[in-house]
Amino acid sequence: MQHISPEFSVPIKFCLFNIAWTWIASVITRNVSQVDRVWTFLPTIYTAYYAIYPLLPFADPGIKSLGVSPRAGLMLLLQILWMVRLSYNTWRRGLFSLKDEDYRWEICRKQVPGWAFQIFNFFFIAVAQNILLFILGLPAHNALIRQPTTLGATDIILAELALVVLALEFTADNQQWSFQIKGVINPNEWFGACISWTEDDRQRESISGKKYPDYAAYQERVGMFWPFGTIVKGHLLNSKGKKAEIDRKVWGPVKGKRIE
């Protein structure tokens, strides 16, 4: 650690500690969702460290003299909101329970030999994911050492865009939850579910398709990455005379609501 900047010393040690305990716990319990349970908190912890670093007694004198970065503070606030949103979604899925494991890991476990899965568990689940969580705090470090005296217009605009993204993510969470629990996206029950577009990546869609039989209809109807994809798919299905049927499978019989 002698050649590492002082402000990195604690986060790196903390990251190594998290790699060690999540891997050991996964081997002992045979449950590899250990990182999943702390995923919602660790990026915020790293960001909080950099945000308050100038206030710490062991802080580098040069950085301490700069004081708390307003930009890093703004990043911390946004990450706290992100943490609350993701923690709520994780809680209602039951992943904070020590007995529960993400079903996707079980699918991966069945697809490879046991020894190969343990290698995957160590290098990807324990090591790579914890390093990724460590990296998510680095923008706050950049704000710490290159901080402006006040927040500028760019900071405010980007913060507002981040809030919009958070709102869309919350909408997507509720929409997916409604679909998985009820079998349809119910706009009358979940806030934001009336927005008829959210996306997932191909690997997750493949796994979700095996778990939820009607997910194929969702894939056929909803754009994967762009809202416009949903509109295009709607017109294509309409030209084939299948739109009404697919809409009923995805959104259910919604009265008084027109879905493109």
TrEMBL record:
The chain crosses the membrane at residues 12-32, 38-56, 68-88, 115-138. The keyword 4Fe-4S does not apply. GO terms for cellular component: membrane. It comes from the Eukaryota. Keywords: Membrane, Transmembrane, Transmembrane helix. PANTHER family: 3-OXO-5-ALPHA-STEROID 4-DEHYDROGENASE, 3-OXO-5-ALPHA-STEROID 4-DEHYDROGENASE (DUF1295). This is DUF1295-domain-containing protein. It comes from Clathrus columnatus. The lineage of its organism: Eukaryota, Fungi, Dikarya, Basidiomycota, Agaricomycotina.
